[in-house]
Input
Amino acid sequence: MTTDSIAVSSETLKRLFAMEVGKGLPLFPELDKARQDIPGLRRSLQAKLLLEASEELMADPTAIPLTTYTLYRQFRNTGERRGYEAPYFHKRSILTAAALRLFLGEDKLLDAVQDYIWNICEETTWVLPAHEWVKIDLFSAETGFMLAQLLTALNDKLAEEVQKRVRDEIERRIFAPYLEFHETFGWYKGHSNWNGVCNGSVGSTFLLLERDESRLAEAVSAVLAGLDTFIHTAFEDDGASTEGSGYWGYGLIHYVDFAELLRQRTAGQIDILSGERMKAIAAYPTHVMLSPAHYASFSDCAEVLSFQPGFIMRLAERSGVSELRRVLARPVLSAGPADLYRDLLDWDLTAILHTLLWWDGQFPEAPGIGDSYLPNGGVVRLVAETSAGTPVVTAIKAGHNAENHNQNDVGSFIVHAGGETFLCDPGTGLYSRQYFSSTRYENIFANSFGHSVPCIGGQLQSAGREFEGQVLGYAPEGEPKKAVLEIGKAYSVPGLGIHRELALAAKGRQAGTIKLQDTFTFAEQPQQVEEAFVTWLDVEVSGATAILHGKTRDLHLTIEEPAGASFSLAVLAEECKANAKEGVLKRLTFTLPAAASGRARVRMTWKPG
Output
């Protein structure tokens, strides 16, 4: 089945599951093949990389991290998530590192692996404190899938009572509540990554462990109905994810896991990774890459991301989007081999096993990054090279202020060159109770104060679907290249128009020069306008000029209009500390006096650092 709708009735699934050819196929054929030559697998490049990446986790595998009641209740008492989540995920990371080695022949780790499995089964709940309102959350679903995968990979090693304990806990915590209550879960037919993670993980766990074909068909049919909503609502028609590349990968990795198991279980009769919609979804990160490992960080998305290689390779293969493999290319400005290893870490054994068995350990060459436009996602990328050959990438978004993992960032733009970001979208704030509450937009990382967008009469952008932007023009063939947006509707200011034009020179001695021009019109009361530019870099300010100091080059910002305007610099150190940021965000501003209309224009040029 290759249609864009992936819903399948339980009766059809019962018939497919009853097929003898499907029963005879291994669910994870690469795993069965690997068992035939474990020493050879251990010598493979990908195995060496994974072992190197996880070696630090093996310092003392007998010291199981404590997930205590006091830490669990920190979230209710203070809104703090990290106290409990740190040992929760560290415990699972150590188990994954130890289980990988046990699978690769280090039998001395059997006791440690069984102790970790037993300890996780002893946890009062697998649901995180921040999500205790739901019977199955992201991480309980993933934990169930991880333990089911452990039974699959290590079934010839684990004690029978350990295996039974895992099956019993999964039945109690995952299978029974899903079958009875899935329709009541907000994520079940939700429009975000939760749908893909939870339904995908639960469906995979059923496929691995459920032996009753009738019950399996009922569960998988429910999972497919949920995931049908996921692929049709969590992504725009052009494949864009308004949650950003990080959550694109998080939701899809579990969708792909489930898809592969189901494809194998039905002897290829159900393939939910084919179809034109999946092609568009799979291509999304290639449209928002700034340079290898760097992505446009709109919404709650980090700029620097790494994807599990196994997931990327399999999605590229099944969807037919071969260029997706290029997202595995290494960063231009890498700190060294340790970064390469660390990128491969994951607390979930399923991701590690798939990287071990679906990837050959090779990193592709850096992709050629070109101009791109996602009309439904409202994102434009323009690319040029300076006369010295340095690649310059700009990205700008329209969108609206009620997106998944929304930030009030309509009109936000990024300037990236030579593997380094100069003007940024600063990404996510600290996840806490406050960040996901009515006070979210008091945080500068969620409101428009922390983005390179104007402030109108002291007002920031407003939250809500009606506060939106529109891409009016995309001209990659012109000179200069241009993206033109209207962003005035993002503010609760009646009669406001903001025509934002981002231009990038692509030819001649001025190649790589950027101009940002904003034209403001007030149909009602004119108001003062504050223009803003945000960066993580060190900044030097002198009147109408600001210099952003990068590692190998500087970006010079010059105010061309209005005449007489000067930059001011604010260092947002306390806000960054409160959000556990390693760097310090800086905010460059200048003002336009209140007038019925006005224009601001800033030229950006490159010079050696």
